Amino acid sequence: MTRFTAYLLVLLLWASGTQAAQLTASVDRSRLNSGETVELTLESNDATLFGKPDLGPLQALFDVRGTRQVNQLTTLDGENRATTRWIVTLLPRRSGTVVIPSLQLGEVTSQPITLQVIESETRNASEPLAAVFIEASLDQTEVYVQAQAILTLRIYHSVSLYDDSSLTPLHIPDARTEQLGESRTYEKVINDVRHGVIELRYGIYPQRSGELMIPAQAFSATLVEPVTQDAAPSGPKPGQLMRVSSEQLLLSVKPKPASYPADVPWLPARSLSLSESWSPEPTHSQVGDSLTRSLTLEAEGLASAQLPPLPATEINGLRRYPDQPVLSSRSSERGLVGSREDREALVPNRSGTIELPPVEVVWWNTLEDHLDRTSLPARTLQVANNPSLMVDTPAGTTQIVTTVDSETLWYWQLSTFLLACTTLLGFGLWWRARWQPAILRSTQAGPSPRTLLDDLKRACLANDSHATRQALDAWARQQPETLADMAARFVPLSDALDGLNGALYSETGQHWQGEDLWRAIRTIPPTEGGLGSAGDSGLPPLYPK
């Protein structure tokens, strides 16, 4: 059992290694001048491959100047991955179209790569060359406004340089500049002398027509000189500071052609492509499904910021939910390639056939110098009914399919109208109520204060202590303050009440005289807040004259 498990493990490892083993070939550039070197990189991710690729097929077309090997171990998601790279420096033996053939390492082979080697101008051999010099060139002398012109700076040096070299930043008024990729380093043989080359490329986008002057660029570096035996090891490194400048270049900028439509954005590009993708594919879409449509515009010679928004899908029967555009730019051999992706979610709200119009982009072809149009054809969507949106109907009746946006719309309109009416009614009631007093006077129940006062008067003058007590209590309940409070602030009333209480609870009650009580009640003074006045309470005066 153990032997079978080990055999199975080895078999799986061999199968995975065979499936993943590959030899990938790439170059740092596919266009170069004659006499310049190019770096070929061969990469393998199979750790079981040993040795180095067979470079014999290169001897016929290239001079192999050097080979170095780089081993790298990376960890991704807890998994170790080993890669091996072989970097080969090649010097083409002829100009024109040169193909790097397939190279073999073990059982795997690389793919061939095609190079374009341009014949460069031969220099006069009698003309001495400086140890360090710089060249500046433009890919074209005329360009349209806002179109791309490529400035290439090449710094040649036949001696070694320290790493303190510097180049003045490129700044051009009335033009936008952008460096295209990183700087490149390679070798070139000039008059049988090997030179190291530092190449930088810039994209220049003029913002106005006319003559555009590209200023000279200055490069400075320290030359490495041989160290003499007398020099101190810890002292300053010997060397000569060199400073070289390129020539000024003149670029002619043409205005936008008169034949270009005035109502569309100006797009001068070498090439332009327009593509479309859907997620998911709208082959079996239903009402309410969400379909994501992506339109991608890619232009060679323009930055992504120069690309306009693509037409929106404003179609009856589709709800549209746009997303933020995705902008990106990348460098290529021919300059900058800008890309813009506009995504939108489309939700069908009715069944049937929905026609999407064609999408067209108007642009100016700078390579062939004429007006061009790139378009996507019209598209037809077949939308089916969604069973989850169907209305349940009794048996024997016709089933009606409704959607939220069409047949049931009047329900929402009616409910919205009723809600608006009730809101206005509530607002009117609130407006009326805010002008009413906070506390309404309640209608007084029982006898009026005038009647109670007359009953109290008759009981007092009749010297009937029991009737007087009942009438006094009924009258006091109608007053703003209690009987005790009135007796406390008016001494004659307090004395008269003592006499009434003594007559009620003693044997002399039959001889009580109520005239003093009546007189005290008639002369009770009003309170300080005016609680006893007729003007504040709305009642007739307590003691009319």
TrEMBL record:
Alphabetically ordered keywords of this record: Membrane, Signal, Transmembrane, Transmembrane helix
Ranges of residues in domain DUF7939: 450-526
Region described as Disordered: spans on this chain: 313-344
Ranges that cross the membrane: 409-431
Signal peptide: 1-20
Name under which the protein is recorded: Oxygen tolerance
Upper taxonomic lineage: Bacteria, Pseudomonadati, Pseudomonadota, Gammaproteobacteria, Pseudomonadales
